[in-house]
Design goal:
Length: about 140
């Protein structure tokens, strides 16, 4: 009885895991040229969904992500290279649209805030533990 429940739970989690990892690219978006489609997928994996914010547009089902995937494919059809496409997107949406923003003066906050918050958290824990030992 318990073994079947555990098997069922594990099966549900595995199915859920594999369903989440399915890409959101619609069949009508796919380019006929395989090489161009690979380029589009690689670019889409590096662009942040502005709705979901923790997913790439390649993984997102949001309407904006779909529009951006189509836009990227149109730019590829026009003969634009990857750098030109990234430049177009960052000019339009800023560096935040890139999942790996460049290391520039205006993106220092994106790069160093996690470390600053981690340091502040360590200091808070240290001083809290020091106070509790004194009491």
């Amino acid at each position: 009885m318990i073994k079947t429940k555990i098997t069922t739970i594990v099966s549900i989690f595995l199915v859920h895991f594999f369903l989440i990892s399915v890409q959101a690219v619609e069949p009508d978006e796919i380019l006929k040229n395989h090489e161009q489609e690979l380029r589009a997928r690689n670019i889409s994996k590096n662009i942040r969904c502005m709705v979901c914010q923790n997913e790439s547009i390649d993984e997102s089902n949001a309407p904006l992500a779909r529009d951006l995937r189509i836009l990227i494919r149109e730019k590829i059809k026009e003969g634009k290279n990857n750098d030109e496409i990234y430049e177009f997107l960052t000019d339009r949406y800023g560096d935040f649209i890139l999942l790996n923003p460049p290391f520039k003066l205006n993106t220092l906050v994106l790069w160093f805030f996690p470390f600053i918050f981690f340091g502040i958290g360590i200091l808070i824990i240290f001083f809290h533990n020091k106070k509790s030992k004194q009491n």
